[in-house]
Each structure stands twice: as C-alpha cells, then as structure tokens.
Design goal:
The protein is mainly alpha-helical. 86% of the residues lie in helices and 0% in strands. It contains nine helices and no strands. Helix 5 runs antiparallel to helix 6.
Length: 183
Amino acid sequence: MQSQNAISMLSSPGVKYGLLGGAVVVFYFLILYFIKADLFLSPLLQWGSMGFYLLFMWQAAKVDGSLHEAPRDFRTILRTPFITFLIINLCYWLFYYALHLYDPALLQTEMAMELKGLKTQIEAGIGDPQQGNILRERMLELEKSMQSTAKQPLGPIINRMFIGAIGGFGLSAGLAAIFRSKA
C-alpha cells in the first residue's frame, strides 16, 4: 500500500515536473560552471533560470488542470505549481551547496564579486552616511572572510531557500490566478 502511495505521489504533475525542472536547472548551471565559474555566479543568468521554473510550473499546472475536469478553487490550483517550484528550488540549492563544497574557490570568487559591487556603490556615492557605514562594515567582513579558508556554511543556503519559497509562492499564486480565470 505504501509503495503504491509513493508511486502515485511521484506520478503527480507537481512532483514529476518538479524533478524534471530540477534536473534541467542543475544541468543549466552545470554547463555555466564548466564554461566559466563567473557565469555560474552571474546574477543575470541566475535570475534567468526563473524562466525554467516558470515553464515547468506552467506545464505542471496545465497537466494537473487537465486531470481534474471539475472547477477547482484557487488553493487547489495553487498547490501543483508551488510543489513544482519547491522541488526545482530544492534541487538548485542542493546543487549550489554541493558545488561550493566541491570547489571552495567558488566561495572566494563570490565574495570578491560582492566586494567589488560594494566598492562600486560606495564610489558612486551613497548619500546616506548610515548606509555608507553599513556597506563599509560589510566590506570589512568580506575582506576578513576572504583571508580564511572557510567552507560554504549551510545556514545561509537554507535561509535563501526559504526566502525563495516565498517568491515561489507568489509566482504560483500568479499562475493559479491565470488558470482560475481561464476556468
């Protein structure tokens, strides 16, 4: 009975498209990493991967909708794309963490990019002295961290994953609203 429940759960559109989307996103970032590590860390390409998330969330919601002919409420429609997002996001963050463990220099590169961005902001002029002090303190923290050989901590990864889930809920709500309006 339990194996039948596990099989039916894996065949649900949210899980199916979540795993498929997770594999695509990991493959995308793996290609970027092997081309050049800086591409993997590029904010533009990081945010660009949301296209994959949306594509698989849309497809999962569409398939789920075709499986249920009766009109459904907003919460029920929302569930499938949100599950899809969570699984894709979990795959991404597990890959991200594993890659940082595999290549500790990636963390150094990431901190150097952040430090460069902070310096650019300060040179451009902040305007608010308090904000300038906060940025300078962050620069000192980064410079100190760059001198150590610390590994990627898991805490910030989990934090970003949960913050991402909030955004994923928003995307799922938008998709659910679109699908609800079509019904």
